[in-house]
Amino acid sequence: MQTKIVIIASVLVGLVSFAVLIGYIGQGNVRHMAIFWPERVVQTVAFEDVDGKVQIQGISGVGGDPNPYLATRVNFAYVLHVQNNGDKPHRLYIDGLDAQTDLIDPGKEFTLTIYPTKKGVYNYYDNSTKLIKLGTLEIHNVVPSDGFTGFLKDLI
């Protein structure tokens, strides 16, 4: 009888210890490197002159439609590579963020890095000779839901 109790107690202590170890490791406390890297949104667009009118064409990270809808997140770096595939110099200007590229000559490119701090919808323009509205940039506020609320709620 005494040995059965010792065996059952040993098995229970082992199972509880194993569950605690899995819970501790599963919460990210034991890693050889950090699993969270600073996020950045990278998109590439290009100016094009089509039938005498300027437009932005999505190249990478954004749809390929003319004058695409651009989107990013609050508090993350937004890197926008702007190429000029047109035949005239162009300058991209984002109203409300007071962000703009240098004057980009044909065949050249410019990288614009923005750190948005508030959500909103901003228009972007070609500001080479006069303001010509091309499209919109929307900055979203994304709330993480990685707080521990109990393992049963995480399974649902």
Structure description:
Helices cover 19% and strands 37% of the residues. The longest helix is centred in the first third of the chain and has 25 residues, at 2-26. The strands form 2 sheets. It has a 5-stranded mixed β-sheet, with no helix packed on it. By secondary structure, the protein is α+β, with helices and mostly antiparallel strands. A hairpin with a 5-residue loop joins β8 (120-126) and β9.
Low-confidence region ranges: none
Structural class: alpha+beta
In helices, the fraction of residues equals: 10-25%
Count, helices:
2
Q: Topology as H/E string?
A: HEEEEEEEEEH
Tell me the strand order in the biggest sheet.
Answer: 3-9-8-5-6
Dominant shape: rod-shaped
Radius of gyration: 26 Å
How would a textbook summarize the main sheet? 5 strands, mixed
* SS elements, strand count: 9
SSE blueprint and pairings:
Blueprint: H1 2-26, E1 40-50, E2 53-60, E3 70-73, E4 77-84, E5 92-94, E6 99-100, E7 109-114, E8 120-126, E9 132-140, H2 151-155
Parallel strand pairs: 1-4, 3-9
Antiparallel strand pairs: 1-2, 4-7, 5-6, 5-8, 8-9
What are the defining features of this structure?
37% strand, 5-stranded mixed β-sheet, 4-stranded mixed β-sheet, rod-shaped, 156 residues, 9 strands, alpha+beta, single chain, 19% helix
Short description:
The chain is of the alpha+beta class. The protein is built from 2 helices and 9 strands, in the order H-E-E-E-E-E-E-E-E-E-H.
